[in-house]
Each structure stands twice: as C-alpha cells, then as structure tokens.
C-alpha cells in the first residue's frame, strides 16, 4: 500500500516569493493534516480537513498561508509571500475519520527561504 | 509553559544499552499517549500507543505511563544502531495531537 506522498521533497526560494506544497493521502483516508516542523521541534498542526472541509485551521497564519483540498483527496498548502522564518519541514498526514485513528505521515517538504 | 515537555538529549549510547526517554505533560485532558520514531529526512512513524497508566511491551520497547505524575517513558532494551533516530512523544485528546520536541538517539556499534 502506498503511503502519504508529498512533493516537492525540497524547495529553495527567495523571500517574498510564493511556494506551494502538494500532498496525496493514503487511499480511503478522509482526514488530512498539515503540520509544520521547525528544526529541533515536534510537528505542530496547521490545518485539519475532514473530506474537503477545513475543520481546524486555528493555527494557520491566514495572512500568508492558505490551503485547499478540492474533491476531498489531494491537498495543496501555499505560502505567499514567504518569509525567512517559514524555513521548516512541512508534513502532511492522513487518517481514517475519527480522533482515535492513527495518523500516517508523509516524508515532508523541506523549505528553505533565502 | 508547553503542554508537553520532552527531555532534550541528544543521547549517545553503546549498542546493547538500555535507553530511557521521558516526557512530562501538564494537560489532564490528554487521553492517549504515543511514541513516534522519526528517521532523518522521513516523517514520524507510530511506534507505541497506550491510553492507560501502566506498562505496555512490544518486543524490545516498553511504554510506561503514570497519569498521576503526568509522566511517560519509553524504554528500549538491547539498543541497536538501527534504533538511531529522533523519538517524539505525543499526546492526544479528541482530534488534538500535541508532540514533544523530540530526543535524538544515537546508538554506537
């Protein structure tokens, strides 16, 4: 069974440029998560989707970050414009619906903002 | 104060050693306690999962939870070089999953 797929794996951009990350969850998983992992820290939730609905986006910095999950499968996370402090790993995870279900993580996208 | 505090490490141990990794938490609402392992350039993967106080064993790994002290531990017996990774404790209530900062473990052969 294929795991969570993320692309690109690495991205280097200049500050003030836009950037987008893509995630394809495990087939059948209705719940999709985007996490931010800073160096030396654990993942922190940015947004959670149940199917195509964002049900928890309280930690998403909405002035520059946006996300979408059209059709309730793939998801895209965008930053516009990027700032130096956005350099981090962006992890996507998916699970079956329901809080008790295991979250499976993708390998992440490592973003470097110069 | 963070909801979950994890001993920072890093830890460097010889092969075969017993490793102890520890976390404390402040939120009594946490119901589920987990340990994730994260290899370099990879996403976290679930290693152990428990919801009650006491011990849970899985091979060389033992997860221990003490809810009265708000303290959880992961013990690794007969550690192997392949155990070298970052270990993240995580705690959940409802849909909210909160991670510790992680402890880097290096097992030397």
Describe this structure in words.
The complex is a heterodimer of chains A (114) and B (109). With 114 residues, chain A is mostly beta strands. Chain A has strands at residues 5-7, 10-13, 19-24, 31-37, 44-50, 53-56, 65-68, 75-79, 88-95, 104-105, 109-113. Chain A starts with a strand and ends with a strand. The model of chain A has no long low-confidence stretch (mean pLDDT 95). The model of chain B has no long low-confidence stretch (mean pLDDT 95). In chain B, the strands form two sheets. In chain B, strands 2, 4, 5, 9, 10 and 11 form a six-stranded mixed β-sheet that branches. Chain B has a five-stranded antiparallel β-sheet with strand order 1-3-8-7-6, with no helix packed on it. The chains are: A mainly beta (114), B mainly beta (109).
Record the SSE blueprint.
The complex is a heterodimer of chains A (114) and B (109).
Chain A: E1 5-7, E2 10-13, E3 19-24, E4 31-37, E5 44-50, E6 53-56, E7 65-68, E8 75-79, E9 88-95, E10 104-105, E11 109-113
Parallel strand pairs in A: 2-11
Antiparallel strand pairs in A: 1-3, 3-8, 4-5, 4-9, 5-6, 7-8, 9-10, 9-11
Chain B: E1 4-6, E2 11-14, E3 19-25, E4 32-38, E5 45-50, E6 54-58, E7 61-66, E8 71-76, E9 85-93, E10 96-99, E11 103-108
Parallel strand pairs in B: 2-11
Antiparallel strand pairs in B: 1-3, 3-8, 4-5, 4-9, 6-7, 7-8, 9-10, 9-11
């Amino acid at each position: 069974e294929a795991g969570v797929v993320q692309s690109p794996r690495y991205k280097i951009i200049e500050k003030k440029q836009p950037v987008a990350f893509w995630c394809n969850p495990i087939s059948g998983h209705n719940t999709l998560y985007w996490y931010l992992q800073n160096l030396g820290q654990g993942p922190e939730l940015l947004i959670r989707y149940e199917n195509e609905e964002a049900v928890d986006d309280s930690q998403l910095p909405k002035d520059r970050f946006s996300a979408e999950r059209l059709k309730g499968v793939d998801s895209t996370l965008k930053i516009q414009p990027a700032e130096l402090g956005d350099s981090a790993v962006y992890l996507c995870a998916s699970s079956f619906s329901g809080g008790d279900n295991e979250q499976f993580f993708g390998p992440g996208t490592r973003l470097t903002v110069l | 104060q963070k909801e979950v505090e994890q001993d920072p490490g890093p830890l460097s141990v010889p092969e075969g050693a017993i490793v102890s990794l520890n976390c404390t938490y402040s939120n009594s609402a946490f119901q589920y306690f987990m340990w994730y392992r994260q290899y370099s350039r990879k996403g976290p993967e679930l290693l152990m999962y428990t919801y009650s106080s006491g011990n849970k064993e899985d091979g060389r790994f033992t997860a221990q939870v003490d809810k009265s002290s708000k303290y959880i531990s992961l013990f690794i017996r007969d550690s192997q070089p392949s155990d070298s990774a970052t270990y993240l404790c995580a705690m959940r209530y409802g849909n909210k999953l909160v991670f510790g900062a992680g402890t880097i473990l290096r097992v030397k052969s």
